[in-house]
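Hi there, hope your week has been kind to you so far. Thanks so much in advance, here it is:
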Amino acid sequence: MLAIVGGKIITMAGPVIDRGTVLVDGDKIISVVEGVIVPSGAEVVNVSGKIVMPGLIDAHSHVGIVEEIFQEEGDDCNESTDPVTPHLRAIDAINPADLGFRDALAGGVTTVVTGPGSANIIGGEMVVMKTYGTVVDEMIVRFPAGLKAALGENPKRSYGPDKKMPATRMAAAALLREALTKAQNYLTKASPEKDLKMESLARVLKREVPLRVHAHRADDIMTAVRIADEFGVRLVIEHCTEGHLVATQLAAKGIPAVVGPIITNRVKVEMQGITLETAAVLAAAGVTFAIMTDHPAVPIQYLAASAALAKKGGLSAEQALQAVTISAAAILGLDDRLGSIEPGKDADIVIWDGYPLDISARVEQVFIGGQRCF
């Protein structure tokens, strides 16, 4: 048993405990109490004067798939040979030796969503994984965690110059509808020959996993909403750069968003409307949202800094922290395991030397599944 004692505990599940104890047995949290309580035989980790937080969750990244320091050798992000590739699986491209995982730990990030990029209309299946380990299969929390799709400029840029679909936004939407329609037809067959593309799309149609759509501009966001309505699928908007323009529409339909990257400039024409206020507007409208880095677009260790900038844009401190902990877990359907310090949850715990939204705060220790890994 492990006793983390004396720290200020920001549980993300209730009031802050100014000086308390977190008890861990195996890979789970078993108790969170005020004061210093050490059971006989427990290993003690004294964190007096420190901040104790749940591990951060980056709900959209490409860590392990776009390896740092490498160019094409370690870049398995986009299969730019076919615009519709739902059967690709992120799990088959992740290198756990990618330096990005080490950086994640240094930034207090214990769980990530990683997956294909946005060159394709449908890019493949995403995965939720812990950031510590040597074998991908042993790091997995949930697979598949969603089917990546993309609208806007990226698919146009990838295929249009070669005179292939999609060269326009109309074609992008048409290809997405076409793929979902084929999968609907596949599901109506009594005993179809197994088709991996259709099996992946069928999981979306059966609402087993969400369709996670890359969309920066407000019109692209609403196209994703329109298509999701047509096919009755669960939808998550990825990036949501102009989400502040359609926040009431997203809220009315209960559609969550993963916002970011925040530490960036107008790197694409469709990001001309980028503002630090997007997350605050979504919050005011009642949209559930998380904050991402889109690593390596923004290095994953700057997830807390991204949340701090969203606070600068109008979020409360609590909302900013929720966006990288419990709200992110809720969007992933994993808030029963992740995102807060509560009995029964995974013992993913980070010790900070200062308030996590303070840009000068440093991560001192990280525990994943009760194991000290940083």
User: Anything to note?
Assistant: Residues 56-338 form a domain with the TIM Barrel fold (CATH 3.20.20.140).
